Amino acid sequence: MNPTKSERAVFLDRDGTINVDRHYLSKAEQFELIPGADVALRRLQDAGFLLIVVTNQSGIGRGYYTEADLHSVNERMHTLLSPAGVTLTQIYFSPESPEQPSRGRKPSPAFLFDARDEYGVDLSRSYMIGDKWIDVEVGWNAGCAASLLVRTGYGAETERKEAHHLGAAIVVNDLSAAAEWILRPEPV
Predict the structure, then answer these.
(1) Domain residue spans of the chain
(2) Nearest CA among 170, 162, 163 for reference residue 144
(3) What would the CATH number be for the domain defined by 8-182?
(4) Active-site pick, 13, 38, 69, 174
(5) Are 164 and 137 in contact (CB under 8 A)?
């Protein structure tokens, strides 16, 4: 693709945002979409947003599962999103454990910058959605238009524990509510 920096994207955490969080999810058959996630993603896609997953997968670095397991889980995600017509543009993942050096581990904005360069994404017109403080932070670090915290997964706990940090973050119930907020009519 010829990067023109005109594409808009929604960057998404995976576990707890798109799917039910299963501690160190490693088996494809355990992958379960959060109700309404497929419809929300389709709405965003239909509005012209690229859908890009950015996920920390420290279970690989900790030796809990393999990169092949991760790809199997991601393939299941594609399979479950496909009937709704949802196409994910890219899945960026960081396999390192928190103690290991990592270029892309959130809250690093490296993967969002990669998407900017690879797909011509205008970060100032893009959004980050996730269920943890680091998801909110990565959106801010990359200069996204807004970072949204969903209350699914660890989101409700994050809202309680990090309330003093959330500042300009948008807090919504789930991915459906996040899509609703992003697609709200512009003020006239």
Answers:
(1) 8-182
(2) 170
(3) 3.40.50.1000
(4) 13
(5) no
